[in-house]
Write a structure and sequence with these properties.
The protein has 415 residues and is mainly α. It contains 17 helices and no strands.
Length: 415
């Protein structure tokens, strides 16, 4: 076979010797194979070895392989260096691999930095291709932090010595609160999983982080369920779940993140941070503290995504008030109408059923903290929301029993 002139120019540029070129021409090698071999920096020893393979085993199916892997459009010569915390995603986002496009162009599973094989392209189920819809600058770091800080409820909590026998009212209150949180965690896990497949591969940092949130949600469901079944109690009543309508009904991914990772996570984190008032045993103190760390990461992603959306989405300032407003309304409705969480918190804050007004006062403190923390988080990303927050969320800080539950002897029963 005479090597075509364009191919000959390429092999000469590689510095192949006249002897090697002559041997190639006498072999059964195809022009496309020679082009691909010339695309890589291979020694003549390796090239002669490949020719030996062709001559010795001409019936081997692999003699027909085009060796296309030797020719790639991707940037080569990468030498990522680990940092103080090892080789993190931020350390490998170098050169062209650190460039995240505003719009991802592939509909299949092509990883960022790779390119599809010629003639082998099957679209996948992705539907989110715009960076503004999912991106947060801290996603990669939050993923690494989640992996580093992972914990195991089975072994990192002292189930043997960390519990103590509680009066039945307190045990039931702990179990009821854990039931509500476990219920929320299971729905959180399902909802994020549903959206994960729609996010295209170009934003793999976000997909990786959301994978850890799915894991965290499963862990939260696990640990709160274990607590209900480990100290003489059992599962309580399921919450009403008005806020699930918002989680399941979010029409855009950003709306989901606002309702779940901003509104709900802000309230959840504020509650976990009152562990000293909630915990009845050392095990619960550790449990709430660990869950708080996980919720903080989820909230951090939610806030940074919301900020990115504000900065890069054309209609952000039209859509965000709608997203926030309707999701706050559903969440406020849950806080007002669903009794299980409220009753459990009052009993735990009161230290029992004999002084429930003290529990109501602390619940008011918690609701006030939740509102203040939530507005503070919004302020931290430059979203001025104090004048537009749902009135029921503010009202619950002043009247945490807004649904009409009465404390006997403390205030008149309401309709």
């Amino acid at each position: 076979m005479e090597i075509p002139a364009p191919v000959m120019a390429k092999v000469r540029a590689r510095g192949w010797s006249a002897e090697l070129i002559e041997r190639m021409e006498k072999s059964s090698a195809r022009p496309d194979q020679i082009v691909n071999l010339a695309s890589a920096k291979l020694s003549e020893e390796k090239l002669n070895g490949w020719l030996d393979f062709l001559e010795k085993d001409p019936e081997n199916p692999f003699v027909h392989a085009p060796l296309s892997i030797l020719q790639t459009k991707s940037e080569l010569g990468m030498h990522a260096k680990p940092g103080p915390e090892g080789l993190r995603i931020s350390d490998i986002n170098i050169g062209s691999y650190g460039e995240v496009p505003d719009t991802w162009k592939y509909e299949n599973d092509t990883p960022r930095g790779a390119h599809p094989s010629p003639g082998m392209y099957i679209p996948a189920s992705y539907s989110i291709f715009e960076k503004s819809e999912v991106w947060a600058e801290n996603a990669a770091e939050l993923y690494e932090d989640a992996i580093r800080d992972r914990w195991a409820p089975a072994t990192d909590l002292d189930w043997a010595e960390g519990l103590k026998e509680l009066p039945e009212d307190l045990e039931r209150a702990v179990c009821q609160l854990c039931t509500v949180i476990s219920n929320n965690a299971l729905v959180e896990q399902k909802v994020i999983s549903k959206w994960l497949e729609h996010i295209s591969y170009g934003f793999y940092e976000v997909k990786s982080f959301l994978g850890t949130q799915i894991y965290d949600a499963g862990l939260k469901a696990e640990v709160t369920r274990k607590r209900t079944l480990s100290n003489g109690g059992g599962m309580g009543q399921a919450p009403l779940g008005m806020h699930y309508k918002g989680w399941y009904g979010a029409l855009k991914f950003t709306e989901l993140i606002i309702t779940l990772n901003v509104i709900y996570k802000s309230y959840e984190l504020s509650m976990f941070e009152m562990a000293n008032d909630l915990a009845q045993t050392p095990l619960e103190e550790n449990m709430w503290a660990n869950l708080a760390k996980d919720s903080q990461r989820h909230l951090d992603y939610g806030l940074r995504h919301m900020r990115w959306y504000m900065d890069h989405h054309d209609r952000a300032y039209e859509t965000l008030p709608i997203f926030v407003g309707r999701q706050e309304a559903l969440f406020a409705a849950e806080l007002v109408a669903s009794a299980p969480e409220r009753e459990a918190l009052v009993v735990l804050f009161a230290g029992g059923t004999e002084n429930l007004q003290a529990g109501v006062d602390k619940l008011s403190t918690l609701r006030g903290k939740q509102v203040a923390d939530y507005l503070g988080h919004m302020d931290s990303i430059g979203y001025d929301h104090a004048a537009r927050i749902n009135p029921a969320m503010v009202g619950l800080a002043q009247d945490p029993l807004a649904a009409g539950m009465a404390i006997p002897g403390s205030r008149p029963e309401r309709e």
